[in-house]
Amino acid sequence: MIHRIVFFALFSFILNAFALDQTDSGNYAVVHRDGHITDFTFFVAHSEGQWNVEQRQPDGTWVSATCSRNCMLKESTTRDLARFFSENELNETRPSCVHNNAFAFCRQDAIFRPGEKEYTLVALMMTRPIQIQLKKLDSGWKDTQGRAQPDSDSRKALNGFGGWLLVTSDNDWPTKWQTQPDAIPHFSMADTITKGQPLYALTFFSNPKLNDHGDADISCDIELRKPDGSASFQQTDTTCFKGTLQGQPNYLYLSAPTIKFIGEQNDPNGVWQVNITLKDNIGHTNLPLKTSFILQ
Predict the structure, then answer these.
(1) Do residues 37 and 29 lie in contact, with contact meaning Cβ atoms separated by under 8 Å?
(2) Contacts of 32 (CB under 8 A, 6+ apart)
(3) What is the pLDDT of residues 174-184, one digit of tens each?
(4) Would you say residue 4 has pLDDT above 60?
(5) Which of 18, 66, 68 is nearest to 44 (CA)?
(6) What is the 3-state secondary structure (H, E, C) of the chain?
(7) For all residues of the chain together, what is the average pLDDT?
(8) Mean pLDDT to the nearest integer, 218-247
(9) Is the pLDDT of residue 131 over 80?
(10) Is 155-295 a CATH 2.60.40.3880 domain?
(11) pTM for this one?
């Protein structure tokens, strides 16, 4: 009897050691059978002991897949895992899952290759469970909840390098910028300004490649165009950041220089275009960004 208690205690310890935890939270994309990453994106979060999965819609909004009592996710048992995975998979990986009636979200740790893991979504509404490979998205822009945001003209990510261009009429933007290094400050976006009112074009970057000394090297092409398309200001290969980052590479950093614009009386009314190309010279990645404002 004592041996049986010890066995169950050890078995319980092994299961708990491989259970899903906070590190499994994040954004995931479905991997197509041919290997390419699709736009079918999920956000997995863990809060107050409950797992929640949201799916991004074509319009960029998020819809919960764990919305009511009947679709709440619960920890999968050994019997559940035997239903989700084949005997060979269970011999080669140690899966841990949470599931409801419609699907299971799983992490599979390789038994014979320590540290190697993969994520799977298991569809359970079919006659038999269907496994769908997932790719965890560790880079790119996220909202305040941590959900991945699609690229736009003014905010993009490529090869892990992120860039963001915005125009604001906040005269106190330097104060707003002096926040915690891992926080994203809130600026008032400026769509329309009047002549004599200052406007600031701010460019941010995140997660550049570093050289062997741990330094980043980012240059910029800057362009301000009038409503008729002619150039009001142009500058090529300006140094926007060069040196050591004061924090983690994936923090948000302000690029230099900052553009200050004040419309004068003889400036034409209409839509002005701001174009900035961020160039990560070490990572060999260019991010063309653009935004606009109306001068009236």
Answers:
(1) yes
(2) 38
(3) 988 887 666 66
(4) no
(5) 66
(6) CHHHHHHHHHHHHHHHHCCCCHHHCEEEEEECCCCCEEEEEEEEEEECCEEEEEEECCCCCEEECCCCHHHCCEECCHHHHHHHCCHHHHHHEEEEEEECCCEEEEEEEECCCCCCEEEEEEECCCCCCEEEEEEEECCCCECCCCCECCCCCCEEEECCEEEEEEEECCCCHHHHHCCCCCCCCCCCECCEECCCCEEEEEEEEECCCCCCCCEEEEEEEEEEECCCCCEEEEEEEEEEEEEECCCCCCCCEECCCCEEEECCCCCCCEEEEEEEEEEECCCCEEEEEEEEEEEC
(7) 89
(8) 95
(9) yes
(10) yes
(11) 0.69
Task: Give the C-alpha distances (Å, rounded to integers) separating 155 from 88, 160, 203.
Answer: 44, 13, 10
Would you kindly state where each structural domain of the chain is located, as residue ranges?
A: 21-137, 155-295
Burial profile 102-139: b = 16 or more Cβ within 10 angstroms, e = fewer: ebbbbbbbeeeeeeebbbbbbebeeeebebeebbebeb
Rounded CA gap, 225 and 56, in Å? Answer: 35
Report CA 240 to chain centroid distance, whole Å: 23
By the 8 A CB rule, do 289 and 158 touch? no
Q: Which of 104, 105, 98, 95 is nearest to 124 (CA)?
A: 104
Q: Which two tokens stand for residue 239?
A: 């140094």
Q: Is 7 exposed, middle or buried (0-12, 13-18, 19+ CB in 10 A)?
A: exposed
Which of 271, 204, 279, 201 is CA-nearest to residue 236? 279
Which amino acid, residue 64?
S
Contact in structure between 217 and 242 (CB atoms under 8 Å):
yes
CB 238 within 8 A of CB 219: yes
Q: Give the span between the Cα atoms of 21 and 28, in whole angstroms.
A: 15
Residue 122 reports pLDDT greater than 80: yes
Mean pLDDT throughout 137-146? Answer: 80
